[in-house]
Write a structure and sequence with these properties.
The complex is a heterodimer of chains A (178) and B (51). Chain A is built from four helices and ten strands; from the N terminus they run βββαββββαβαββα. In chain A, a hairpin with a 5-residue loop joins β1 and β2. Chain B contains one helix and no strands. At the A-B interface, β6 and α3 of A face α1 of B.
């Protein structure tokens, strides 16, 4: 693995959709986000192509790990997100698309955007006005500004504020009433 | 018709599992505290004017 020590989320928000889209057939599939179970860990290993130790992530009691799956196909994890509800915002520790959704050969697009929108939803639900914080690699800062409407807070820190969170929410959860 | 700008990056998804530094935590906390105050302020001013 490249350098896990060089902290910074490095996910590409390739598309904002209210579902994931099969890049070959162009078909869209409705998704759902749910908390992962210990049984899921069997399929989320480095041996199976995941870059991070999600077992380790699940070991932090203050963090919650969620999986994105396609409705009616819950056994296949499309992506994962690790979130921590802080006193005044939600901190996004980690986002990772499934190995088959990475790079140019990905099967589904829209996975990371979908998960970030879920983080915004959680932030609203917890009374944090949609505020999200996360860390970015330097070369991806502009990408997050343009694709997520994030604010560069300085250094590695990025913030998604209420306005940007609402935009993302409308995109993914347009039928949701807060 | 307006053409949608799509940004393509040739990167995979790599992140870190280390926690934030205390300094970063503090900066974030201060920022969100200020934001909350900023949101609450207009109501306070209105009350002051009424009184």
């Amino acid at each position: 693995m490249e350098d896990n020590e060089n902290i910074g989320l490095d996910f590409e928000i390739d598309e904002l959709t209210n579902s994931v889209r099969n890049v070959i057939t162009n078909d869209s599939f409705q998704t759902t986000v749910s908390i992962i179970s210990k049984a899921d860990l069997k399929t989320i290993t480095k041996r199976k192509g995941w870059l991070f130790s999600w077992r380790q992530e699940l070991g932090f009691p203050e963090r919650d790990v969620f999986k994105l799956t396609i409705i009616n196909n819950q056994s296949i994890i499309q992506g994962l997100i690790s979130l921590e509800v802080k006193p005044d915002h939600v901190y996004m520790h980690l986002v990772e698309s499934a190995p088959f959704n990475k790079g140019k050969e990905k099967i589904y697009s829209g996975v990371p955007g979908n998960l970030v929108a879920f983080a915004c939803k959680l932030s609203f639900q917890r009374g944090h006005e949609g505020n999200i914080a996360f860390i970015s690699k330097t070369q991806l800062i502009n990408h997050y500004i343009e694709s997520l409407g994030a604010i560069h807070f300085g250094g590695r820190l990025m913030i998604i504020d209420t306005k940007a969170a609402l935009k993302l929410m409308n995109k993914y959860y347009s039928n949701l009433t807060l | 018709m307006k053409k949608k700008n799509k940004i393509e990056l040739n990167v995979d998804f790599i992140g870190g599992q280390k926690p934030l530094t205390k300094e970063e935590e503090m900066k974030l906390s201060e920022y969100f505290k200020k934001r909350r105050k900023k949101i609450a302020r207009p109501t306070t001013r209105k009350k002051e004017l009424v009184n």
